[in-house]
């Protein structure tokens, strides 16, 4: 994980220098963009493994930067917000952020979030590289309701072969649910799958991820959702809806 290049989109030079100094001591390479425009230029010319994206930027806000990134890439993104309100967190997750931290935050916590995301990314890449070139359903793929989930390639595709864009957290939640059809999966298990860390009991992030999955997977509004809410218990994946 050390040696990875991290793009920090932050216009406050003192904050950037603090993050740069800490992350470089941990073995990371760091580049900086102070505006959304410069972020776009860097992304198009420089390979990076993760983005730390501040919400408050001088030319555009971080939400538009997040939407631009998500339309082009599955690169992991951690939002750095100046507020702790749930609204900011929900907006970031709905737009495809992998995680968020409210300022001020502990540098050790940021490092832990980065390492958690990178471990999952590297594990998925290793599984994809080791997977057989063609093995049909025998290689662990899960087919349901017009979709095919492939844990090895970390992709969900339609029967026509079109790739469905999911964030890392969404993919992990869907994989856990799809591997346990008809079984109630507790919210705590889904939270752990989403980020691999402890969550506040009142954190509703997993509900945002579920809502996003429903919007992407439930193509026919006249049919029940593939993901059912079981009040007071968690969520259940029901692939057969007839």
Q: Can you give keywords for this protein?
A:
single chain; 242 residues; Rossmann fold; Arc Repressor Mutant, subunit A; five-stranded parallel sheet; four-stranded antiparallel sheet; globular
Short description, anyone?
With 242 residues, the chain is α/β, with parallel strands linked by helices.
What level of helicity do the residues show?
A: 40-55%
Main β-sheet, in a few words?
5 strands, parallel
Mean pLDDT: 84
Low-confidence parts: 131-138
Number of strands: 12
Task: Give the distance, in angstroms, between the N- and C-terminal Cα atoms.
Answer: 46 Å
The strand order across the widest sheet is: 2-1-3-4-5
What is the H/E string? EHEHEHEHEHEEEEHEHHEE
Basic shape? globular
Tell me the structural class: alpha/beta
CATH homologous superfamily identity of the largest domain: Response regulator
CATH class (first level) name of the largest domain: Alpha Beta
Structural Rg: 18 Å
Number of helices: 8
Roughly what fraction of the amino acids lie in strands? 15-25%
Q: What is the CATH fold-level name of the largest domain?
A: Rossmann fold
CATH architecture of the largest domain: 3-Layer(aba) Sandwich
How many discrete structural domains? Answer: 2
Task: Summarize the topology.
Elements (H helix, E strand, L loop, with lengths): L4 E5 L3 H13 L3 E5 L2 H10 L4 E5 L7 H11 L4 E5 L4 H9 L4 E4 L4 H24 L11 E3 L2 E4 L4 E4 L4 E2 L3 H11 L5 E3 H9 L9 H13 L9 E4 L3 E4 L5
Parallel strand pairs: 1-2, 1-3, 3-4, 4-5
Antiparallel strand pairs: 6-7, 7-8, 8-9, 10-12, 11-12
